[in-house]
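INFO  loader      accepted 1 record
INFO  loader      residues=81
INFO  predictor   begin
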Amino acid sequence: MESTQLAAVAADTADPKRGLRAIASLRALADTLELRQVEAALRSGMTWQEIADALGVTRQAAHKKHAKRVDPTIPTPRRNA
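INFO  predictor   done
INFO  writer      dumping tokens
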């Protein structure tokens, strides 16, 4: 099912079980897309703070969610000690 169809099913309250499954699928899709964008941001040289700002979260939250999931070949900026 396409994401637009999933969104329509998720918004339809006539069948809550089906709607909840659609929401779970959309959440998984959003998580996958977010990780791809975080990886693209790191490849382009963005810092964790810039990524966090774009996502509307703290730097710590962005790093905690994604740091262990990003492609290990991507060089990530380090904070100066």
